């Protein structure tokens, strides 16, 4: 269906080809996963299928790409539109119209389909993707998962024989991701659609793939094979494969189900170790649980006090009220946030202690970002209080607030405002009032090998995140917040992030991450707070909260249940106590 | 299977009835109605009639606007109208006015200006007549703005696209995409100012705004490029094969038509061209329209559920046009009532028939379906 014949792509101004020697074929009706570390040209390969590379991006494509018998050299993207449906990384930049129904019809209108055909296909697609009660909704009011489904639906309606997807689930919560993947599987199974998809979160998608095309490194030709074969040699692999490699299973299991069948021996082997195993992270389980002891530590005059009403807020939150220094980095009490008549957060109580890492989880739109934004004072509470030591975030001047709390936003690039790394560091030192060179030292620590004159735009996602992190850390805030830090990161970059975060927690920083990545939460978080519809629905040690949840449990926990193991590194440490490997996903 | 279960689960979560999409009115009808009210507003300076016009349009908007992001633009238009009115009054106060008046309200110190600025006055006497005149004039402009706002709130301008002739469609999309640039830009500015706050810089002030300017433009440009890529990949701009003869005829008709329009307009505007002006203009217009229609053949586009122009659309459009026509008639018939004098200063009276005519504009509030849906 899609045939690459010795394809290489060189962008204008680049010395080396971005991809070369791409020569494989995707048969009709198969789901092929394009895997590989960041920056190996996955998006370029995907773009070549829809003709956007090179017709739209420029550059030179040598070799030949044919899709459904059409050569992309002679067919422009618009002439391939009836054969190929493309969904890019950001669904929002894909939408042309305002409402769901019109968006679904747009592609068919361009192709000139008859009105009754369009009508029928729109209704079918609305049902297929579970969008029928959203049909008249303006697209901007939808959640991320809904937008992603609309984006997929909008390219499905012209009935393309090939679907090309670039990271369709990376912005989605686990449940929404499963919904999208279930739809894709149904398309492949029932309609015979050919799907080519790139995705970093292999643990979510590998089980659906018929074949995997692995791009092992920049400029290296792809390796094509069954998922099990490719995963045996791949530098990127999900935790289930990591566990399989650790235990020496062959062929490698790809699904939790396969792995569970093999894991009997491993479970027995680990049985005795289970009490000692969660060292370095599990010890918090034995400590008094901070949220439960909260009421004892709060000043008595606020105990059981009704939610302060808006007009009393000023008197109640004057800095004079707390007399004893709080042992917590941050305290949130009865926090409610209402914006545009929608309650984003409802009666949130949360305490954050130094050295603690909290993962904030929940579906898209549950209020995670709003909570982080209220902690840095970007959102003013409608009621309730937030205290960072002595300060109330939304009343503190930004210059002072940076020394108390730092947030790395979802798009780290927003934080970077100059055109070289050196200038960025100088600006960060000045903003934070730190000694010159503080930020640069942090950058060298987090990002070895990045030169002063690099433009932040030329960094990879992971490097940009590290730079933004260094900028935020320059002011040494005791509380560090990260909003969805692993979007677009490969396993190696994620493992580095995990190391950095562990180091920071060790130094006494309190860290709160809002994330959909259950594996990341399992690796670093001491405590997980689950949000749903603006309320806290679970708050407790990571192992307790995630193991009991089907969608938030990491793969290792599912495989080794009922034992409480969360990550491959824990299992490795238990099996080989002498050779602990801090990089579970990055060794290659 | 998860896929099979999804629609069922979603349906169970939201048991509310399906909103009736077919109940929407043709957007053209709303625009015609609103713009007609605006035209009516230009025919009068009577503040009572203008207030009545604003009330009528506001009532219809309040009862009939759908719950969508773009319908919230009405508030922005209302604020803009108020600002226009205030600025008009301020200018009349500061710069004086050519209206001769006898009722001096206050006297500002007059600024002596150099000789080259003769004719401009700064400060001086502020008369009640001048202020009243400015108020009437400003109110007229404000009413016009509010009527345009009503059109925006009642019907999304991009829905009008569906009614464009095929040959112009792609141009229309480009215009709409350009229009959505502004709201995106505002969202970007807000996000980047939040990011500045995160870096510990003051997030207000002109300097703060200027420093986010470049990244905002960069982001907007990137988004435009990726939108263009997405549109291209979805078949935007596909052309159908048409016979060479048709293509040539199209070109000839369009070019000839446009030339005819130019020549005809020129003829109408010059003294000696009175005889040939009008017919040439009409022939040119017809040829251009035929060219457009033929040109539509090159575009294979079809339309998904085009808005139908039904009885209600006729009623809405007619009610608006009737208001405009009746007020124009009244302005010709009884100019004194529609333009209350300011010199000498008299209290405006409400002329009965024009007021009744304006009330015709309320018809859409009763004949169109209520778009309020639970959300």
Describe this entry's structure for a reader.
Chain A: It is a peripheral membrane protein. Chain A: Keywords: ATP-binding, Cell membrane, Membrane, Nucleotide-binding, Translocase, Transport. Chain A: Belongs to the ABC transporter superfamily. Chain A: One of its GO terms (molecular function) is ATP binding. The complex is a heterodimer of chains A (588) and B (375). Chain A has 24 helices and 20 strands. By secondary structure, chain A is an alpha/beta fold. Among the domains of chain A are: 235 residues, Rossmann fold; 64 residues. Chain B is mainly α and 375 residues long. Chain B folds into three domains: 194 residues, no CATH class; 72 residues, no CATH class; 55 residues. Chain B is 66% helix and 4% strand. In chain B, helix 3 runs parallel beside helix 5, helix 7 packs across helix 8 and helix 11 packs antiparallel against helix 13. The N terminus of chain B is likely disordered. Chains A and B meet through helix 3, helix 4, helix 5, helix 7 and helix 16 of A and helix 1, helix 7 and helix 8 of B.
Quick structural overview:
Chain A has 588 residues and is an alpha/beta fold. Chain B folds into three domains: 24-157 and 308-367, no CATH class; 162-233, no CATH class; 244-298. Classes of the chains: A alpha/beta (588), B mainly alpha (375).
How is this fold's topology laid out?
The complex is a heterodimer of chains A (588) and B (375).
Chain A: E1 2-10, E2 19-22, E3 25-26, E4 31-35, H1 42-50, H2 52-55, E5 60-67, E6 70-71, H3 77-80, E7 84-87, H4 100-111, H5 115-128, H6 144-156, E8 162-166, H7 174-191, E9 194-198, H8 202-205, E10 211-214, E11 223-225, H9 227-233, H10 239-247, H11 256-262, H12 264-271, H13 290-297, H14 313-316, E12 330-339, E13 342-352, E14 357-361, H15 368-375, E15 383-387, H16 398-401, E16 405-408, H17 421-432, H18 438-446, H19 461-473, E17 479-483, H20 491-506, E18 510-514, H21 518-524, E19 527-532, E20 535-541, H22 542-547, H23 555-560, H24 568-575
Parallel strand pairs in A: 4-9, 4-10, 7-8, 8-9, 14-18, 14-19, 16-17, 17-18
Antiparallel strand pairs in A: 1-2, 1-3, 1-5, 5-6, 10-11, 12-13, 12-15, 19-20
Chain B: H1 2-13, H2 27-42, H3 47-64, H4 73-95, E1 104-111, E2 122-127, H5 128-154, H6 157-160, H7 166-198, H8 206-233, H9 244-269, H10 274-295, H11 311-333, H12 335-338, H13 352-359, H14 364-367
Antiparallel strand pairs in B: 1-2
Helix pairs in contact in B: 2-3, 2-5, 2-11, 3-5, 3-13, 4-5, 7-8, 9-10, 11-13
């Amino acid at each position: 269906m899609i045939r690459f014949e010795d394809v290489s792509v060189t962008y204008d101004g680049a010395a080396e080809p971005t991809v070369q020697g791409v020569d494989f074929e995707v048969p009709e009706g198969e789901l092929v996963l394009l895997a590989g570390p960041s920056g190996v040209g996955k998006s370029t390969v995907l773009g070549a299928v829809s003709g956007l590379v090179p017709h739209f991006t420029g550059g030179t494509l040598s070799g030949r790409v044919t899709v459904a018998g059409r050569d992309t050299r002679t067919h422009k993207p618009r002439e391939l539109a009836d054969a190929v449906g493309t969904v890019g990384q950001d669904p929002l930049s894909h939408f042309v119209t305002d409402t769901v129904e019109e968006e679904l019809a747009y592609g068919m209108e361009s192709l000139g389909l008859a009105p009754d055909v369009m009508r029928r296909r729109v209704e079918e697609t609305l049902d297929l993707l579970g969008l029928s009660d959203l049909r008249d909704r303006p697209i901007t009011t939808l959640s991320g998962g809904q937008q992603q489904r609309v984006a997929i639906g909008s390219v499905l309606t012209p009935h393309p024989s090939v679907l090309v997807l670039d990271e369709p689930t990376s912005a989605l919560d686990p449940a929404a991701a499963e919904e999208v993947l279930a739809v894709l599987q149904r398309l492949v199974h029932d309609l015979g659609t050919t799907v080519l998809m790139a995705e970093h979160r292999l643990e979510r998608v590998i089980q659906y793939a018929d074949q995997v095309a692995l791009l092992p490194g920049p400029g290296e030709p792809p390796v094509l094979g069954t998922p099990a074969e490719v995963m045996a040699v791949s530098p990127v692999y999900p935790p289930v494969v990591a566990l399989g490699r650790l235990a020496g299973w062959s062929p490698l299991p790809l699904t939790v189900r396969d792995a569970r069948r093999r894991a009997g021996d491993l479970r027995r082997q680990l049985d005795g170790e289970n009490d000692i195993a969660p060292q370095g992270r599990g010890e918090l389980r034995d400590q008094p649980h901070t949220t439960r002891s909260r009421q004892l530590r709060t000043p008595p005059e606020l105990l059981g006090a009704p939610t302060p009403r808006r007009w009393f807020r000023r008197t109640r939150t004057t800095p004079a009220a707390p007399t004893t220094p709080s042992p917590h980095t941050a305290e949130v009490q009865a926090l409610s946030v209402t914006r545009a008549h929608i309650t984003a957060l409802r009666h949130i109580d949360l305490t954050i202690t130094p050295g603690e890492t909290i993962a904030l989880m929940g579906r898209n739109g549950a209020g995670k970002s709003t909570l982080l934004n209220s902690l840095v004072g970007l959102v003013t509470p409608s009621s309730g209080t937030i205290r960072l030591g002595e300060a109330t975030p939304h009343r503190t001047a930004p210059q002072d607030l940076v020394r108390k709390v730092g947030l790395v936003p979802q798009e780290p690039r927003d934080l970077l405002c100059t055109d070289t790394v050196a200038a960025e560091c100088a600006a960060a030192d000045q903003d934070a009032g730190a000694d010159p060179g503080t930020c640069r030292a942090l950058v060298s620590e987090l990002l070895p090998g990045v030169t002063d004159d690099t433009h932040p735009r030329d960094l990879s996602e992971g490097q940009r995140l590290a730079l933004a992190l260094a900028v935020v850390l320059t002011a040494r805030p005791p509380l560090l917040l990260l909003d969805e830090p692993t979007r677009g990161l490969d396993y190696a970059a994620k493992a580095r992030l995990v190391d950095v975060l562990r180091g920071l927690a060790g130094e006494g920083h309190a860290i709160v991450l809002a994330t959909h990545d259950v594996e990341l939460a399992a690796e670093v978080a001491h405590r997980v707070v689950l949000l749903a519809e603006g309320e806290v629905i679970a708050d407790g040690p990571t192992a307790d909260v995630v193991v009991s949840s089907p969608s938030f449990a990491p793969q290792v926990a599912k495989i080794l249940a009922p034992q409480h193991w969360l990550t491959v590194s824990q299992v490795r440490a238990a099996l080989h106590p002498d050779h602990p490997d801090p990089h579970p996903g990055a060794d290659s | 299977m998860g896929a099979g279960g999804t629609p069922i689960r979603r349906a169970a979560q939201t048991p509310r009835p399906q909103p009736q999409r077919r109940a929407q009115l043709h957007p053209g009808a709303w625009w015609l109605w609103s713009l007609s009210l605006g035209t009516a507003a230009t025919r009068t300076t009577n503040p009572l009639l203008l207030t009545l016009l604003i009330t009528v349009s506001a009532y219809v908007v309040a009862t009939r606007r759908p719950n969508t992001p773009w319908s919230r633009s009405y508030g922005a238009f209302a604020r803009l109208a108020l600002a226009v009115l205030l600025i008009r009054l301020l200018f009349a106060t500061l710069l004086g006015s050519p209206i001769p008046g006898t009722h001096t309200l206050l006297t500002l110190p007059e600024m002596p200006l150099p000789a080259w600025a003769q004719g401009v006055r700064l400060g001086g006497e502020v008369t009640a007549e001048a202020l009243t005149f400015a108020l009437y004039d400003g109110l007229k402009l404000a009413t016009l703005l509010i009527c345009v706002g009503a059109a925006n709130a009642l019907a999304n301008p991009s829905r009008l696209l569906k009614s464009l002739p095929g040959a112009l469609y792609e141009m229309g999309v480009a215009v709409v995409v350009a229009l959505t640039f502004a709201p995106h830009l505002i969202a970007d500015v807000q996000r980047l100012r939040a990011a500045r706050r995160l870096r510990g810089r003051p997030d207000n002030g002109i300097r703060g705004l200027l420093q986010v300017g470049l990244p905002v433009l960069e982001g907007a440009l990137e988004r435009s490029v990726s939108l263009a890529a997405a549109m291209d990949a979805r078949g935007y701009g596909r052309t159908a094969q048409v016979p060479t003869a048709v293509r040539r005829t199209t070109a000839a008709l369009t070019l000839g038509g446009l030339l005819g329009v130019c020549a005809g307009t020129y003829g109408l505007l010059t003294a000696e061209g009175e005889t040939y002006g009008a017919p040439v203009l009409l022939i040119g217009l017809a040829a251009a329209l035929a060219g457009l229609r033929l040109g539509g053949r090159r575009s294979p586009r079809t339309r998904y559920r085009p808005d139908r122009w039904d009885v209600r659309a006729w009623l809405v459009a007619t009610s608006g046009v009737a208001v405009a026509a009746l007020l124009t008639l009244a302005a010709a018939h009884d100019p004194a009532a529609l333009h209350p004098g300011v010199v000498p200063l008299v209290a405006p009276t409400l002329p009965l028939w024009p007021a009744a005519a304006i009330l015709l504009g309320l018809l859409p509030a009763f004949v169109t379906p209520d778009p309020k849906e639970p959300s």
